[in-house]
Every structure is written in structure tokens, then in C-alpha cells.
Amino acid sequence: MTGPPARPADERLTRYLDEIAAALHGPRRRQRRILAELRDGVEQSADGRAARGATPEQALAAAITEFGNPTAIAYAFHPEMAIADARRILGWLLATGPLVGIWWLLLLHPQPWHGSPAELITAIPVTPLIAVAVTGTLATFAGTGRLIRWIPEAAPATALTAAFSVAALVLAGDITVIAVGWSQATSTALGVVAVGASLTRTAGSISAMHSIVTWRHRLTP
Amino acid sequence: MPMRPEVLKGHLDALLLAVLEAGPQHGYAIIEALRVGTGGALDLPTGTVYPALHRLERAGLITSDWETVIGRRRRAYRLTTAGTRALSEHRTVWNEFSAAVTAVLTRRPEAATT
């Protein structure tokens, strides 16, 4: 069963929002939210004009003109979307830390519950890289989140640079741990899982770095 | 005459927070409130207001939720406690700034000495 045919005004609004969507980048959920908000705003504006006597088509045309060029609107969201993407990437890298690290720890220090904290830290050959990456991630979260009420706000380009740097550190860490850790492996099965986890994250890190470079180009005037 | 958005640089946050002080509003209603409340002087473009609202939400100064009004989904923004405090600080800074600028701009040069 099909619904009622779309009115010309509805089709025009859908086309307008599609043009915005085509130029909008960043997390999908944020994109959907922005488009829903804009749709509501245009409809509000059109309703007001229709209430003052305009036909639905005239009202929508005027509302769309008021909202402006679809590409310009999408570009206006780029700084916020770049920050949202940088935070998403950093959150993903931070979350994968324990998920990947636990396999290497079990491989390189088979009984971690019997070791001192110092032994556990030195068992992983890339601990300094992890420390720098975590510090960079937390600093970027602080400079792009609620703490900006008290500390200087990080610009989108800065957040992207930080996310790129952390992704590069994670990439270097994974390659190093595969090269060094594999030779010290005490269990082949565990080694395969650990290498598999690191390789999966390596692919994710490379994809994230590519995405960040694309963002840098988009933000360049 | 409408003001250019760049003139408002540094004051946009305060203006948006002030509009939301009266109660929750959705994006287009905020644009309308600024336009109507200033007799058309602050006719801000969509591309200025919506991203600024998203930034304020990221900073925790406002929060938003979807509401359904007459069958239509609408994102309503409201001030948080931190936003109310920030608005108060903006007002204090603005009062001091405007008093200082007014004092300078309204000063007339003394008659030229002969």
C-alpha cells in the first residue's frame, strides 16, 4: 500500500534538505539530527508565512530563501562536525586500548595477576607511546568538551591535529608491539589473537588518519 | 538596519543564552526571538545560529531534547545551571564593557582653542 502522493512543496523541501545532506559530513547521527532540525525550522518559517496569507508553495519558497544556500549551511556546521569526528575517533582509539592491550599483556606476561604494577607496565614495550596517546586524548577531550567553560577551547584544526597524532601513535604502537612482541610470544594461539587485534586497529587507525586529512582539506578556506 | 553576524562576534553566546532564559525554545524560534526582540536589527542567518547552539550544548551551557508538537518532531533547547551562571557572567562583562565604550564614544571634543 502506498501513501498519499507527495505535494510539490514537500518534494521541494526534500530536495533542499538532500542538497544540504550532500554537503554535510561527520558522524551520521549528528547529520540526521541537523537535517531534522533544519526541516522543522523551514516548516516553521513556511507555516508562519502561510498563516499570513501566502500559498504553501510561496511560503516554502520564501522559507527556503530565508534559510539560505544549502552548501553554505552545511559548511557552517563543518567546525562542529570536525570536532565531533575528532572526539569520535579519539573515543574509539581510547576504547580499543584495553581491548587490544589485554591480549598483548596476557601474551607477554602470562600471569598478570601475579606481577607488580611495574612489571606489568614494563611487559608492554610501547608503554611510553600509550602514555602520550592517552594524555593527548584526555587533553583534547577537555579542550573540546564541557571544560571549555574554564580552559581555552581547542579549535577544530587543533582537535583534528591531536586526533591525527594520537592515531599515528597508536599505529606506531601496534606495529612496534607486533614486531617486538611476536618474537617473545609464549603462546601461538594468544599471539594470533593479539596480532589480529592490533592489525584490526591498525586498519582503523589508517582509516581515521585518512578521514582527518580529508577534514583538514574541508576546513581550509 | 540588520547587523552583520561578524559584528556580534563574542556576544552570540550571551544572546542565545539570554533568549533561552525565558524557557525552552527550538532553533527557529530562537532566530525569530532575536529578530523580533530587536526590531529586525539581529536577523541572524541559520548557518550562524544552529552551529552556535550545538557548540553551547557541547560546552554544557544548554541541553536539548526531541519533543513532538502537533505531530512534528522538534529539538527544544533549554539552559542548564551552568548556562544560567554563564549568562550572569556575560551580563556583568557586557555592562562593564558597554559603560566603558559609551563613556568614550559619547565624549565630545572640547571646543578648539584659538
What would your notes on this structure say?
The complex is a heterodimer of chains A (221) and B (114). With 221 residues, chain A is an all-alpha fold. Chain A folds into two domains: 8-76, no CATH class; 78-219. Helix content of chain A is 79%, strand content 0%. In chain A, helix 7 (127-144) packs antiparallel against helix 8. The radius of gyration of chain A is 24 Å and the shape is elongated. The mean pLDDT of chain A is 90. Chain B has a three-stranded antiparallel β-sheet. Chain B has 114 residues and is an alpha+beta fold. Chain B has a single domain, classed as Winged helix-like DNA-binding domain superfamily/Winged helix DNA-binding domain (Arc Repressor Mutant, subunit A, Orthogonal Bundle). Chain B contains four helices and three strands. Chain B starts with 11 loop residues before the first helix and ends in a 9-residue tail after the last helix. In chain B, a hairpin with a 2-residue loop joins strand 2 and strand 3. The mean pLDDT of chain B is 89. Chain B has helices at 12-21, 27-37, 46-58, 81-105; strands spanning 25-26, 62-69, 72-79. The A-B interface holds A 33-34, 36-38, 40-41, 43-45, 66-68, 72-73, 75-77, 79-80, 83, 144-146, 148-149, 153 and B 26-29, 31, 45-48, 50-51, 54-55, 58-61, 72-75, 82, 86.
